[in-house]
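Journal club prep — side note

Before the paper discussion, L.F. wants everyone to see what a predicted structure for a comparable chain looks like in token form. Sequence:
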Amino acid sequence: MELTSQVIITAQIEKTIEALEGLRLDESIIEFISPSMHKILTPEEGIAIPMGVQRVVTEKETFRVEDAKVVLDKAYLASEEKNIIILAADSFTAVIQNRLLKVIEEPPKNKIFILITANKSTILDTIKSRLPIKVLSEKIEEESLGLDLKQLSLATVYEFTQSHKRTDSKSMRSLVERIAKEAMSTGLYNLDEKTLTLFSNAYKALDVGSPAQFVLNTLLLKLLARKKR
């Protein structure tokens, strides 16, 4: 991975941003990211943004025309130092890409553009003809869940829930998916419709904004009750 103009296709957008930040030497990095990405990158108040990095958080989760205007304003600010402008979104609409096409095609002095997205199919041919496409491996090595579902108990539920006090809803949804897969693979739980509904209800609760830790605690306690005796 390099700090050069390119389009990066990856399912791990936040980790890719962190990796690019780690490559910075004397360049300045300007990032345009969504509120959920910002929350993952800085999950707690008081956590410092890396030196030399400026984060512009979009108002909405989607990258809009208004955000493209801010990008253009930043791009045309004169600077003697190299500026790496990172645009990160799950996808970029054709309208947005066309708005940015000229500045990408003829970038101002000392400006480098990196687009990061999960969807290669949404990138216009005009962008592909001007920027190299780098597809990062989609193979994700998951860390240990940190919860032995074969030995699930009130004590382990409490400990695990406490360890996820600051886990956001997006990350919690992924965690719930992993718990579901591992619970099914153990063969120790009654995998009937009632059990499967537990996970479905957890997803719905997260989607409507229920506190992530409360959802996790409720799920695990109900799952514990469904353990085969």
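L.F.'s comment for the group: The longest strand covers residues 111-117. Keep this in mind when we get to the figures.
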